[in-house]
């Protein structure tokens, strides 16, 4: 194939490729199109290639039926085509650049989509967190509501209590007023009593000076305070009448119990019984030498070699000791319980021999102490059974020596050194001074420490002071060895 044929083929190809693209712009093709206008609105290109045998320098496009020189392809046309080609190449390059840019955009789009997915995930996560937070806050709200309800209930309760407190305060005020009125009334009555008493007597009924309390001797761990006498004593009071007044009982020893009772005798005293072979503690019949009649006593044969004749016993409050002269003279109580032997019998005993006195004291902790006096006897009834004591020894303290030489005083026979009647204040007969450091015939208080206007318990000042009532006491005598 020669150069002319190459050129023609190239022209054909380019013309065909650009036919539909650049038909309107290209002036050459416009001319070619003119050759096809007869085809009407189909706008199809239809070309006829004439290949001359002579040498030609360029492609020849001849419309069907036209072969004029002016329609022949010239070098200018080739140049134009080349120009067009280069332009197409540039456009191609431009398109490639655009494509590259589009590729970048696609990548960016992919990145954006990925970010979008991440954002969606993050939003979902945040949404879940928010939901959780909402639920938690709702729970908190429930708890808060419950708390508020509880606070409301507590407030209501406190208001109710405050209301009750106010009511109680009002009642307390009313009761206080009543108590104050009663106190005033009592004070008025006391004043009237004092006036009446002062008209009848030269001296006002002032109480005796209180015995000095000895705190260091009060037994520790005192079970409880009390101002009540034991129940048994209350029963006794019901049976025998008020304990505050002298009981009109007979002076004889009451109802001997046939237990530990010796039918032998009578003996001179308990040492005599012991020496007769009776080494058991119990009830015995004795008759002092000058006594008119025998009496029952409790003989203590188990302590300190035995032979002790018990004159007095307190241990349970079962016997009332707030009695008159005749009772104290002849004796009262139960031999195996609480009793008072009787001033006359004690006097008779003391006349027949030289005796020593042992006083045994037991506190409410179960501790026992004693006070012993080297000699003991009473003067006769004409001397009101004046007390005569020897030297003290023991561990209870000497509270009785201040009563030595004193006459016996009862509610109805005042022989003490005090302006009033000590038996009235101390509630029992005793060898009172004014009034003294001890009274073992006072009220049996349960528990030890007691509250009372006067010291009317069974007290021994040197052991426990004036307001400690001993649990049990015994007074007993034995011939001096
Ligand atoms: Ca007096």
From TrEMBL:
Q: Would the keyword Ligase be found if you checked this record's keyword annotation?
A: no
Localization: Secreted
One Pfam family per UniProt: Fibrinogen_C
Q: Which GO biological process categories is it annotated with? A: blood coagulation, common pathway; fibrinolysis; platelet aggregation; positive regulation of heterotypic cell-cell adhesion
Q: Which Gene3D superfamilies match?
A: Gamma Fibrinogen, chain A, domain 1
Where is the sequence biased in composition, kind Basic and acidic residues? 229-242
Q: Does the record carry Nucleotidyltransferase as a key word?
A: no
Read off the CDD domains from this record. Answer: FReD
Q: Provide the Fibrinogen C-terminal domain boundaries.
A: 261-481
Q: Which GO terms describe its molecular function?
A: extracellular matrix structural constituent; protein-macromolecule adaptor activity
Q: Which NCBIfam families match?
A: GGGWT_bact (NF040941)
Q: What is this protein called?
A: Angiopoietin-like 1b
- Organism, by scientific name, is Cynoglossus semilaevis
Taxonomy, top ranks, is: Eukaryota, Metazoa, Chordata, Craniata, Vertebrata
